[in-house]
TrEMBL record:
Domain AMP-dependent synthetase/ligase residue range list: 17-392
Name of this chain's protein: Long-chain acyl-CoA synthetase
UniProt entry keywords in alphabetical sequence: ATP-binding, Nucleotide-binding
Xref: InterPro entries: AMP-binding_CS (IPR020845), AMP-dep_synth/lig_dom (IPR000873), ANL_N_sf (IPR042099)
Entries under Gene3D superfamilies matching the protein: N-terminal domain of ligase-like (3.40.50.12780)
Organism taxonomic ancestry: Bacteria, Pseudomonadati, Pseudomonadota, Betaproteobacteria, Burkholderiales
Domain of life: Bacteria
Organism the protein comes from: Simplicispira metamorpha
Keyword DNA-binding carried by entry: no
One family name in Pfam for this protein: AMP-binding
Length: 564
């Protein structure tokens, strides 16, 4: 194991920029109605020091847990740094959690206080925050939260900044990252300062970044990828971070930031593609891209419209990226590098190498990462210096997460090709058996199914009582709007039937879908059918729809409209 240089640890990086680039803009925060707040490194460090002094004055024992409940904003990052500078442990919370899950995490983590920031559904979430828990509000907090909290600005105004350069050892616990929970109750993943320092160092070897780069922070900072890429990438390299204001302003936010590096989940990449196809049909776009001069102009216009004209590195992850989607974006001049990782390894496991077409794989492991395939189950296993310390208060689950010789069990299946590139074929636990006794791996089929222009998300499911699997799909907003028109609905159904035939033609006989079921209910975080990072909760889908599987399969229809 390589020793982590203290200079790479998070707090030391803050002090570095405070001293070397005090007047450089570090964070750009929209305030609404076109107003923007720009914070320099000196201003960031000053507010962090004042808030750290306030937290220390509470007299809690070192290593106390302090939660952060907010959408992404400048104060989120400053809160995290203040918690660390004060000697405590941060507990980031997704800003879309239901009150029950919120209450569970606050109770389980033994949080001593909570920062409550920018939120869309505070009144719904509020019952999950104990009334006797000390809270601190941000300038952008909703009014209801501000009334029950101490105010960030007031604390900073009346508190002297913490002096000196307090540091934390590499092996100190830095944070509890509660998993987004696709299969059950969230678990608190423990990571140290050394884990983060090692992980971002390896990440920057694969994706070099520097002070001249610009990144837009919009995926939840409670998620491991955003946390590592934005927060720790920012601290290590000094690049400028822009924040998104809202979903409604996302296009404007992208145009304002003009990111040079951009990461997103597959669902948003699909939305980008669908948006372009609404303006230019796939056939027309394909024709134009073939024309030498016109194709160049079209590609430039598309990327400019997305706000990605200056993006030199695009990446996707958190869920499988369909091969056809990767090929399409490469065709418009924006190759996407696909990454693979999990909360338990700080998302540093695999990433395709920029400049090399490794589509259909997640590439080789990062430097310092080892990988192997379990010969019996086909499970992908890995180890590195970024592996979690364990699950908080769950020694049995921690033991189960590792092999006896210390390799992390990922729960994913795959194989390593002759180049050393990893191919992921599905989840070990996602495999299901039909009544014919054949196993079906849903993930590769879902990658093909989701490529229809009207499908936003899908699940391939089945049971031992069905002869064939079936596909359950959620339409995008544009497709849902046309369902009130009989002719438009009939045209959509015909298109879905043709898509079903195309997908089935690529599958083995036992994998072919009996039918497509169009869900009437949107899959959202609020109804617990997707995670905050837009991954579909397969077990919840099966719980909600499973009782209807047999009727759908017996209907004899290729497209079944749920409840009608």
């Amino acid at each position: 194991m390589r020793t982590i240089s203290p200079a790479l640890l998070a707090l030391q990086r803050l002090y570095h920029w405070e001293h070397t680039q005090p007047g450089q803009i570090a964070l750009v925060q929209p305030l609404g109605q076109g107003a923007v707040l720009e914070l320099t490194w000196s201003q960031v460090a000053d507010q962090v020091r004042r808030m750290a002094a306030h937290l220390q004055a509470q007299g809690w024992e070192s290593g106390s847990k302090v939660a952060i409940l907010s959408k992404n904003c400048a104060w989120w990052l400053m809160s995290d740094l203040a918690i660390w500078m004060a000697g405590h442990v941060s507990v980031p919370l997704y800003p879309t959690l239901g009150p029950d899950t919120l209450a569970h995490i606050l109770r389980h983590s033994e949080a001593r206080a909570c920062f409550i920031g920018k939120l869309d559904e505070w009144e719904h979430m509020a019952p999950g925050v104990p009334t006797d828990l000390p809270c601190i509000s941000y300038p952008l907090s909703p009014p209801g939260a501000s009334r029950r909290c101490s105010a960030w600005d007031a604390i900073c105004t009346h508190t002297a900044p913490l002096a000196g350069e307090p540091t934390r050892p590499a092996d100190d616990l830095a944070t509890l990252i509660y998993t987004s929970g696709t299969t059950g109750v969230p678990k608190g993943v423990m990571h140290s300062f050394g884990n983060f320092a090692w992980a971002i160092e390896q990440g920057l070897r694969r994706i070099p970044m520097g002070p001249s780069d610009r990144l837009l922070s919009y995926l939840p900072l409670a998620h491991v990828v955003e946390r590592l890429l934005i927060e720790h990438g920012w601290l290590q390299t000094g690049f400028r971070v822009y924040f998104a204001e809202s979903l409604d302003t996302f296009t404007t936010d992208l145009q304002r930031a003009r990111p040079t590096v951009f990461f997103s989940v597959p669902r948003l990449w699909v939305k980008f593609q669908n948006g372009i196809h609404q303006k230019l049909s796939p056939a027309r776009l394909k024709l134009l891209l073939r024309l030498p001069l016109v194709g160049t102009l079209v590609r430039r216009k598309i990327l400019h419209g997305l706000g990605l004209a200056q993006c030199r590195m695009a990446a996707g992850g958190a869920a499988p990226m369909p091969l056809a989607l990767l090929q399409w974006f490469r065709g418009i001049g924006l190759p996407i590098n696909e990454g693979y990782g999990m909360t338990e390894n700080l998302a540093i496991s695999h990433l395709t190498v920029p400049g090399i077409n490794q589509e259909g794989t997640v590439g080789p492991p990062y430097d310092g990462v080892e990988h192997r395939i379990d010969p019996e189950s086909g499970e992908i296993q890995m180890r590195s210096q970024a592996l979690m310390l364990g699950y908080y208060k769950a020694p049995e689950l921690t033991r189960d997460a590792f092999t006896p010789d210390g390799w992390l069990r990922t729960g994913d299946q795959g194989f390593i090709d002759n180049h050393g590139w990893l191919h992921i074929t599905g989840r070990v636990k996602d495999l299901f058996k039909t009544s014919k006794g054949k196993y079906v791996a849903p993930a590769p089929i879902e990658d093909k199914l989701v490529m229809h222009k009207s499908i936003e998300a899908c699940v391939v499911s089945g049971s031992g009582s069905l002869g064939q699997p079936l596909g359950i799909v959620m339409l995008n907003a544009q497709a849902m709007q046309c369902l009130g028109d009989a002719a438009a609905k009939a045209a959509l159904e015909a298109s879905l039937v043709r898509h079903l035939h195309r997908v089935n033609a690529t599958l083995e006989p036992h994998e072919r879908l009996q039918c497509l079921v169009v869900a009437r209910q949107p899959w959202t975080v609020d109804n617990d059918l997707i995670t905050p990072t837009f991954k579909v909760k397969r077990n919840r889908i099966e719980n909600v729809y499973g009782a209807q599987y047999a009727d759908w399969a017996a209907s004899g229809r290729e497209v079944v409209w749920q409840n009608g």
